[in-house]
User: What shape does this take?
Amino acid sequence: MQLIIVTGMSGAGKSTAIKALEDDGFYCIDNLPPALIPTFTELCLAQQEKFKKVALGIDIRGGVLFTDLFSSLETIEDNGYKYDILFLDSSDEILIKRFKETRRIHPLAREGRIEEGIVKERELLKEIKKKSSEIIDTSNLLPKDVRGIIRKIYVEEKDFNNLMITVVSFGFKYGIPIDSDLVFDIRFLPNPYYIPEIRPLTGNDKIVQDYVMNNEVSVDFLEKLMDMVEFLIPNYVKEGKNQLVISVGCTGGKHRSVTIANRLFESLEKMEHNVFIQHRDIEKDKKRGK
Assistant: This one.
C-alpha cells in the first residue's frame, strides 16, 4: 500500500494537494486525528485490494491532537509500514495575502493577528518539515501547477528536487517584482515598440520574437543567461533553496522581456526542471498599444 501523509502550513495548498491525489486514484481523508493513523493503516492493509493508494491530510486544525503525529508515525514504522510525507509551504507574505483575500481566520490566531498564527505554526511544524519526503513551495504556483507537480511525483514517479523555478517577465516602469532572486535588465536589446506594425503585439507573437532574436546580441545573451542559470540551479538545490524567481525586465514588460522569458522557460522545461512562467505586465499597456 502506498501511504502519503499530507501536511504543511495553513493556506499553503493542502486541500488542493488532497484533491489532486484523489483525482489520481488515492483514497483520501482530510484532517484525520493523528492518533488514529495506526488503526486506520491496519484497516486499509486488511483490505489492500480496495486501498492500494491512501493519502491522509494532517494539519494544525487538530490542535493538541497534532502532537500525536510523531508517536503515530513511529508506531507504523515499528510495524514495518512505509510512508511518505508531503509538506506544503509558502512564504509568510503570500500566506497573509491568501488569508486576507479569503477572509479566513488562521487556526492559531483566532483572537490575534494572522502573522502571529503563522509564526506559531512554523514553530510547531518545523520538525515534521525536516522529516518530509517532499516539500512543495506554492508561493508562486497556481492550483493547476500544484496538481501538475503532484502528478509528476506520485503518478509519473519522476524525480523531484524541491526547487521551484518561476520565470517572470516585467516592465521596469512598473517596478521590480519584490520576490525576485535574480533580475536581468534587457533594455539593451532591440525594441519592437519603435516598429509601428508590431508595437500592439507582444512577445508571445512570433513576429515580435523574431524581431528580438534576429540579432547576435540577443542570441549571445540568451546563451550566457542559460549557462549561468544552469550553473546556479544545482548549487541552490545543494543549499536547500526551494524557490527561485528569475525576473527578466524591459521598459514596459510587453515585448523583449516576454520573448526572453519565454525562451528561458522553454529551455529549462526541456531540461525537466520544475519551471513556471508569469508575464506580470504584458496587459498593462494594452489600451495604449504600448
In short: The first helix runs from residue 14 to 23. The mean pLDDT is 88. The chain is about 40% helix and 20% strand.
